Amino acid sequence: MGEPCKIFVGNLSYDASEDEIRSKFDEFGRISEVAIINDRDTGRPRGFAFVTFEDESAAKDAIGNLNETDFMGRNITVKEATSRKGWWRRRRPRRRWLWRR
C-alpha cells in the first residue's frame, strides 16, 4: 500500500454533503477523510473540499477520471492538493515602517 494522498475538489455545489462526495470518490479507492471547507463567518460551505485517499495511486486515478466532470450540476475541478506552508509570505509583501521622530 502506498502513501496517503490528499486531493483538492473545487467548484462543488454548496449543497454537497460529505456522504455524497465520499460516494463519488469511493469507487477509486479507500478514503480516510473528506473535509468540506466552511466560511468562518457564516458557517456555510465555500464550494471546495479535500479528499484524502489511503493510497496515492487511487488518488491519481480519481484525478484523471473526475477532473472537469459533472457532479451535482457543476463541473468540478479535481487536482492534487498543495501545501499552504508559508502561503502568507508569498502573498503579502513585508512592510517595514520606520516610526522615527
Summarize the entry for a quick read.
InterPro entries: Nucleotide-bd_a/b_plait_sf, RBD_domain_sf, RRM2_NsCP33-like, RRM_dom, SLIRP/GR-RBP-like. This protein has 101 residues and is an alpha+beta fold. It is 24% helix and 33% strand.
List its salient traits:
5-stranded antiparallel β-sheet; RRM domain-containing protein; 101 residues; Alpha-Beta Plaits; alpha+beta; single chain; RNA-binding; globular; SLIRP/GR-RBP-like; 3 helices
Describe the structure.
It holds the Pfam family RRM_1. There is one protein chain. With 101 residues, the protein is of the alpha+beta class. The chain has a domain at 6-75: 2-Layer Sandwich (Alpha-Beta Plaits). 24% of the residues lie in helices and 33% in strands. The protein is built from 3 helices and 5 strands. The protein has helices spanning 18-25, 56-66, 87-91, and strands spanning 5-10, 31-38, 45-53, 69-71, 74-80. The protein has a 5-stranded antiparallel β-sheet, covered by helices on one side. A hairpin with a 2-residue loop joins β4 and β5 (74-80). The longest helix is centred in the middle third of the chain and has 11 residues, at 56-66. The relative contact order is 0.26. The mean pLDDT is 88.
SSE topology sketch:
Blueprint: E1 5-10, H1 18-25, E2 31-38, E3 45-53, H2 56-66, E4 69-71, E5 74-80, H3 87-91
Antiparallel strand pairs: 1-3, 1-5, 2-3, 4-5
